[in-house]
């Protein structure tokens, strides 16, 4: 985190609202950058930053040492991103063996495969439900487009369109994570 004037933190801890607002303003860009690396999507990252700034605003007086500010805020963001990820995961229905099939890629080292698994899971989970369902039915359950269309009550063209969009979104998220060039 950028160097923050210790006097500003002391003033904010003592209840100076102007100092506190200035501190929030100074912290936000670094928190935004960090949250985008930790959270699964931009919306979750924004939510995590807002939670961290709100906690800082409400509980600045409990900060024990000035040097602990950045690590305290980063831990709040990590916990919030994980909480959001867990709550999103509850809405994601996939059997464990289907998840494993999704990650079979023997040409990738185990450490790279672990990172890819996490990023791929995040990308799929972050898809809007309509795209996620089509992607899982077609690419994981290996159903045909007509079968998916029958199950979901859609036209075959709609299934193909949603699948195309879902794959593009996942590919872009994986590219942003550094997996493909």
Automatic annotation (TrEMBL):
This protein's UniProt keywords: Sigma factor, Transcription, Transcription regulation
InterPro entries, per the entry: RNA_pol_sigma-70-like (IPR039425), RNA_pol_sigma-70_dom (IPR014284), RNA_pol_sigma70_r2 (IPR007627), RNA_pol_sigma70_r4_t2 (IPR013249), RNA_pol_sigma_r2 (IPR013325), RNA_pol_sigma_r3/r4-like (IPR013324), WH-like_DNA-bd_sf (IPR036388)
GO molecular function: DNA binding; sigma factor activity
Keyword rRNA-binding tagged: no
Top-level taxonomic group: Bacteria
Domain RNA polymerase sigma-70 region positions: 25-90
Biological process terms in GO annotation: DNA-templated transcription initiation
Domain RNA polymerase sigma factor 70 region 4 type positions: 120-167
Transmembrane segments: none
Transcription regulation keyword on record: yes
Gene3D superfamilies: 1.10.1740.10, Winged helix-like DNA-binding domain superfamily/Winged helix DNA-binding domain
Family membership: Belongs to the sigma-70 factor family. ECF subfamily.
Protein name per the record: RNA polymerase sigma factor, sigma-70 family
The species this protein was found in: Gilliamella bombicola
């Amino acid at each position: 985190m950028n160097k923050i004037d210790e006097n500003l933190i002391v003033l904010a801890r003592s209840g100076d609202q102007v100092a506190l607002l200035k501190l929030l303003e100074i912290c936000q860009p670094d928190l935004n950058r960090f949250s985008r690396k930790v959270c699964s999507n931009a919306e979750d990252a924004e939510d995590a930053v807002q939670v961290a700034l709100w906690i800082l605003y409400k509980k600045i007086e409990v900060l024990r040492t000035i040097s602990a500010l950045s690590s305290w805020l980063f831990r709040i963001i990590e916990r919030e991103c994980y909480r959001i990820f867990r709550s999103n995961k509850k809405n994601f229905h996939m059997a464990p063996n289907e998840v494993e099939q999704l990650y079979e890629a023997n040409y990738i080292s185990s450490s790279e495969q672990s990172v890819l698994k996490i990023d791929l899971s995040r990308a799929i989970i972050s898809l809007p439900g309509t795209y996620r369902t089509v992607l899982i039915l077609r690419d994981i359950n290996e159903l045909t487009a007509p079968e998916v269309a029958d199950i979901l009550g859609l036209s075959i063209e709609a299934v193909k369109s949603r699948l195309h969009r879902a794959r593009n979104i996942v590919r872009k998220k994986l590219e942003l994570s550094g997996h493909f060039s």
